[in-house]
């Protein structure tokens, strides 16, 4: 596995949680939904109630994300960039907010095993659109805030990070790699999910 990228992801996630604890004195809160359980929940809760959560490393024995990406590769007929495989198979987490020289961002993660199939469907839809438009294959991992109208993606051939808008040509190259991109981000406090 690409160790420098693992270190960058781990460092960003740790910085996000540390910032949260420094600024609020507690973990962020999310609404407990028994239909979407996650290892991120830090204590049992009643449905519809707020519960503390934090990003959790996916265990080595949990292959659900790798299996989902393997099935995605089979459906597409080509390999998925290793950086994206690592990104989605490192942590279970809700989106994490960040700021950069390009504005506010929301970094996307998988909440649980159940989330893997939803992501696979979204990535297939995105890649089929790219194919239809005869554009290079890209795979999204973040979106812009507050509107979410643009997204950030990894070019599947080069590993470069691009800013994109759905259905259009990529707008601007942001970094040569996911590792280089993460160096340019600053975490923001994680907002609570309201009841």
UniProtKB/TrEMBL annotation:
UniProt keyword annotation of Ribosomal protein present: no
Keyword Cell membrane belongs to the record: yes
Keywords recorded for this protein, A-Z: Cell inner membrane, Cell membrane, Membrane
This protein's GO CC annotations: cytoplasmic side of plasma membrane
Residue stretches of biased makeup (Polar residues): 40-60
Region (Disordered): 38-60
The protein's name in its UniProt record: SecY interacting protein Syd
Organism the protein comes from: Amphritea atlantica
Taxonomic lineage from the root: Bacteria, Pseudomonadati, Pseudomonadota, Gammaproteobacteria, Oceanospirillales
